[in-house]
Design goal:
Number of strands: 2
Shape: globular
Distance between the termini: 38 Å
Radius of gyration: 15 Å
Largest sheet: 2 strands, antiparallel
Length: about 120
């Protein structure tokens, strides 16, 4: 399964939208299967964007996790990714440069674009 940065962003938005600060149980995101959501949650725990419960077992078809809440790094990433113009610009740059990017580099790219957007040094 390939990592989908759009799904990463959607999971972060879904968690942030909860009043309690906790991810909804049985999170559903239109256009994505539960297995994709759980796999990306697993990756997001590894990247430090969310806290969650790893629940991979012998019958799992891929690594699995259940998201619990955003981390500070997750909030930072989402704050940079929330602006659709900046997100689209970052995704265009990624496509022009080869189509793949790590979470850490995407976070840096979004931060750089955000700084330019606000004319910060």
């Amino acid at each position: 399964m390939k990592r989908d940065m759009e799904l990463v962003k959607k999971i972060l938005i879904e968690i942030e939208s909860q009043e309690s600060g906790y991810a909804p149980t049985n999170m559903l995101i239109e256009g994505y299967a539960q297995e994709q959501i759980h796999y990306h949650s697993y990756l997001m725990i590894q990247a430090g964007l969310i806290e969650g419960i790893r629940c991979t077992n012998l019958s799992s078809t891929s690594p699995q996790a259940i998201p619990r809440s955003l981390t500070s790094a997750g909030h930072d990433f989402l704050d940079a990714a929330r602006n659709e113009a900046l997100w689209n610009k970052a995704m265009t740059i990624v496509q022009e440069k080869g189509g793949a990017i790590t979470v850490a580099v995407l976070s840096q790219l979004l931060s750089s674009l955000m700084k330019n957007h606000f004319d910060l040094p």
